[in-house]
Amino acid sequence: MNKNVCGYYRTSSMTNIGKDKDSIKRQKHSVHSFCKSRGWVVVGEFFDKGVSGNLDVLNRPSFVEMLNFCEENGIDTLVFESSNRLSRDLICMETGFQYLTSLGYTLISVENPDTFVENTPTSVLIRQVLGCISQFEKSSLVEKLRVSRERKSLLNKKRGYISRTGKGKVSGVKRLTETQPELTDLIRSYRKKDPRTGRMTSYRKISTLLEENHSLSVSFNSVKRILDDYEMMKREERNRKRRKTTKTETV
Fold first, then answer.
1. Does residue 176 form part of some domain?
2. pLDDT at 58
3. Which of 104, 139, 174 is the last residue of a domain?
4. Number of structural domains the chain divides into
């Protein structure tokens, strides 16, 4: 007799989401292969995107949606790729397990199918060990990413990719000076000194000229930010060339 179950998937990073990403494909393949080998049918699939493994299960939108679906359809078995899909936090994992089993649910980790089935002292120990390993892996990954970001920041600063704080840019939305160099050139062409007053064209005036002459809606704050970014990039480029020249002369 076929058994109906629900598959649960989770990823904490939004960068792991998309057709070309492996996380969801891997988790689905793992769950479906496991269920197929036992003659189970996955009748519902729920995916928490960008949700931390440290978050309590009842604070995860798709997890709560899955519980409602299970209640309405008489499903009592939840299947996921590994214990860290349920939680990467030891306390959240154990309390989540206790709460869900008290409601009559059976939790199945494909990686270790017996992890959540029994509630013996040995099973509790195994879950806690797995939870500790998961916490260690997460802490180790966070530290590796931090070191990697710092290394990339130093490298990008040397290359001239600078954030507004003056550090090497590592991530975040690209500046308009990077994505729209033509707009930057256009704004710079309007930033001139008035021969009568000796003053530079104001940011508000440039914003108005862009709207009137080119049908471009650019706020005066954006105009200022683009000009500031351009000056910072040029300054850093000059410094980079100066450092390169000094290094060559020293050698």
1. yes
2. 82
3. 139
4. 2
pLDDT at 32: 95
Q: Is 86 exposed, middle or buried (0-12, 13-18, 19+ CB in 10 A)?
A: buried
Looking at the structure, do residues 9 and 114 belong to the same domain, yes or no? yes
CATH number for 104: 3.40.50.1390
Binning pLDDT at 50, 70 and 90, where does residue 78 land?
Answer: very high
| Angle formed at CA 126 by CA 120 and CA 129, multiple of 5 degrees | 140
Classify residue 167 by burial, with Cβ atoms within 10 Å: 0-12, 13-18, 19+: middle
Q: DSSP assignment, residue 106?
A: E
Domain with 164, as residue range(s), is: 157-250
pLDDT in tens, 46-57: 999 888 877 888
- At 139 the three-state DSSP class reads helix
Q: Assess if residue 244 is contained within a domain.
A: yes
Indicate whether 8 and 128 sit together in one domain: yes
Tell me which residue of 216, 221, 238, 229 sits closest to 178, measured CA to CA: 229
Domain end: 106, 139, 172, which one? Answer: 139
Please compute the mean of the pLDDT values over residues 103-124 and round it to a whole number. Answer: 73
Calculate the alpha carbon distances from 35 to 2, 28, 169, 242 in Å. Answer: 10, 11, 45, 63
Strand 40-49 relative to strand 77-80: parallel, antiparallel, unpaired?
Answer: unpaired
User: Amino acid identity, residue 61?
Assistant: P
What is the distance of C-alpha 223 from the center of its chain? Answer: 30
149 belongs to a structural domain: no
